[in-house]
Amino acid sequence: MTVQDKELVPGLAGIPAAESSISYIDGQAGILEYRGHRIETLAEKSNFEETCWLLLYGSLPTRAELDGFRKQLSGYRALSPVTVDVLGRLPKHGHPMAALQAGFALLGMESPDIDVHDRAQREDACLRLIAAAPTLVAAYARSRAGKAFVAPDPQLDTAANFLHMLNGEKPDELSAHVLDVCLLLHADHTMNASTFAARVVASTEADPYSVCAAASGALKGPLHGGANERVLQQLEVIGSAGAVPAWLDKVTAEKGKIMGFGHRVYKTKDPRAKKLQVLVREVREKLGSTPVYDTALALEDAVVAKLGGKGIHPNVDFFSGIVYEKLGIPTDFFTPIFAIARVSGWLAHWCEQMEDNKLFRPAQIFTGSHDAVYVEIDKRG
């Protein structure tokens, strides 16, 4: 059978592109696992840095291993003066995801060259990227706001450090915990668009800094990581809980898109959304409710009542933006936070790809013409 005889599968939907033991989804049952561990259990008992270890190494760490891992991360969080200076010179009106892509490239230029086939060198690069990603994002956020760079605190973990570097003060315990769980929930999600992009670039044996930069480009899109920004914008457009029924009727009549609902895999409520909703409730109880939160609850009830029978339920993007907004994070920094979390998953897939690498080179179904006649430019109509 020739390529032309094969059936096109748009978006490669459902086509296996790799074998992986990193994460697992059962979309019908609403299950997500990292290395066999249910996401609900990890969100309840674990933390982001332990989860990074789990994704990279395949099992939960001992206390000594986790302590050593955290010490190594702490040693790699700082940025060079050159990187801080370059980030500060980037356009203030640009999207933070573009700044993060530039930051990954800068980090790669300053880091040691690595042999991608050497496991120890791969692990060192993973630590550098996981540690530095939050610092890159916070540094650009501070620069864009006209504020001085805040260096990482060696006593704080990833989530608390990010809030510290973003706001210039040590965060309260609840805020740090909430962000830590958010990072954990976003750490990996099987062969999504950005992870596929990461593995394609990895298959060329490019360095992991390029891999993360490429994956960030995929994550920026509004059909992937950028969706959480559009959820908050949608809720602000709706305006209030009372306005939900009329808005929803109009959107469904026009066959418009309801951001934050539906998923290519899940046919029930996203298990990550369930935990995020709990976090939103905790933050609301401590920091107070907002019209956005009340509108979100009303929209969820209305959409599930109207479309739940078709498998349309809240996904991870629906509540994540509400959580970040309550933490005082600017809307266009929601996706970079997603990236901070997903770096660990991208790198776990990069390491797995390098264990038995094959260059990705899919075929295409050609729909153009053949034997076209070249007409001299002066004779063209």
Quaternary status of these chains? single chain
Side by side, the strands of the main sheet go 1-2-3
Order of helices and strands: EEEHHHHHHHHHHHHHHHH
Helical content class: 55-70%
What is the CA-based Rg, rounded?
Answer: 22 Å
What is the highest CATH level, the class of the largest domain? Answer: Mainly Alpha
Strand content: under 5%
Mean pLDDT: 92
Which residues form runs of ≥5 with pLDDT under 50? none
**Helix segment tally:** 16
> Largest beta sheet, briefly?
3 strands, antiparallel
Shape: globular
Q: Give the beta-strand count.
A: 3
How many domains? The number is 2
Question: How does this model look, in words?
Answer:
The chain is mainly α and 381 residues long. It has two domains: 20-220 and 331-355, Citrate Synthase, domain 1; 227-326, Orthogonal Bundle (Cytochrome p450-Terp, domain 2). Helices cover 57% and strands 3% of the residues. The protein contains 16 helices and three strands. It has helices spanning 39-45, 48-57, 63-76, 81-89, 96-110, 119-144, 158-167, 173-185, 193-203, 208-219, 227-238, 244-253, 271-287, 291-307, 316-326, 334-355; strands spanning 23-26, 31-34, 37-38. β2 and β3 (37-38) form a beta hairpin. The two termini are 41 Å apart. The model has no long low-confidence stretch (mean pLDDT 92).
